[in-house]
Write a structure and sequence with these properties.
Chain A is an alpha+beta fold. Chain A is built from four helices and 13 strands. In chain A, strand 7 and strand 8 form a beta hairpin. The chains are: A alpha+beta, B alpha+beta.
Chain lengths: 262, 117
Amino acid sequence: MSACRALPTFFQMEIQMKGSDEWVCFGPGDAYNVPPGHLPRFTKGETVMMEFSSDPTYTNANFISGLNFFVIQHTFKAGKAEEWWGKFKDVMADPQGMENMAKAAHDAGFHNHAFLPMPDASGTVHCVWEAQPGKGVKDMQAFIDGPAGPSMGCMDNIVFGPVDAATAQLAYTPFFGNSNASAPPAEVKGSTMYMVCALCTCTLCTDIVHVYMEHVYRHTRTTKPSTTQTTHRSSTTSKRARAPPCGRTWASSWLTLRRWRA
Amino acid sequence: MWENMGKLMADPSAMEGMSAKHKAQGFVNHFFMPFKGKTDGLFACCLWEAKEGLTEQQVQEMIDEHPGVGPFCDNKVFALDATKANIGLAQVFEASPEALKGAPSAATVKSPQKSVA
C-alpha cells in the first residue's frame, strides 16, 4: 500500500485500480481518471460511503460469486468446555496471541467475522467465517478442526454452507471477496455515483456536515466501433446538503473522481 | 417458502413495513444467511437483536409468527452472551447502564464506518 499523504482525517478515500495492489489516496480537490474495475474504500475519519451504480461493484455477479461464507456450529466435547474457555482466555489476554491467531487463519485462507457463544459456558457456539473464493466445505471443515482453527481439540464442529450470497443479507464487509479480482469486467457501461458523508472536524464547526458528491458520466461510442474509438464526455455535479456552519470554502473540498471507459 | 419470501423481498414497502413492525416490537434482524451447500437439514441462519427485557421465548414466538418464514420452517433459537461474543455489528437498541455494568467494551460495538448499498 502506498504511503498516504497527510490529508484531513475526516475526508479521505482510497482507490485500488484493477490489476494493482496499490491503494491510491484521494483528498479534497483531487481529480483522477479512475478506470473500470476499481475498488473504493474509506479508511480514515468518520466517513460513510454509499455506492449507487449501474455497474454495482458490490452486487455484480462476479463479486457475489466470490463471496464464500460459512456458519460453524461448535459443540464442546464432554468435559472440555472449561479447558477451551481457559485456553481462549489466555489467547484473548495477549494482543499478540489474537493477532497470531487471525494471521494464521488469513494465511490459511479464512477470516472470522463473528463469534457467537451462548450464555451457558458449555453451550453451543456459532461462528461466521469467510473463506477465500474456491475453498469448499471440506476445506472449511479441515481448517476449523485443524491446529490453526479455534477448536483447540475441545470442540466438535459442524460446517454449514457455503451461504447463498445471492439471496443472503450478509451484513459483514467481505474480507477476501473484497478484491478487485471480483470487480466487474471492463465492458461495464453506465454511471457510478458516490455519496460521501463526512464529519467536519474543524474547531468552529460543531455540526455534522454532509458532503454530497455526484458524478455523472456519459459514455458515447462513435458510429465506427471498429476503430475502437470512444469519446468521453463527463460532467460532475456537486451539491451540499446545507451550508457548513464553519463557512469553509467548499470549492476545495470536493472529492472528484473521473471514471472513464478504458 | 421461497415464493412467499420472494414476494416479500420484491416489495420494498412490504420489507420496510415488516422491519418497522419488528422494530416496534423490539426485534431487529442483522443478517440472513441461507445455505446452498452443506445444510444438514438447516436452510438458513439468522441473527436477531432483541430489546433488553425480551425473553428467548418471545424471540421464538416472533420468529414462529414471522410472515416470511414462520409458517414454513421449524425455528431453533439460541440466546447469545453479548459480553463474550464478537458480533462485529452495531447494536440497534441501547442497553441500559445496569445491563452494561461490568461488561467489557465489546458489548457496545461501534457502528462500522463504512456501509455499502
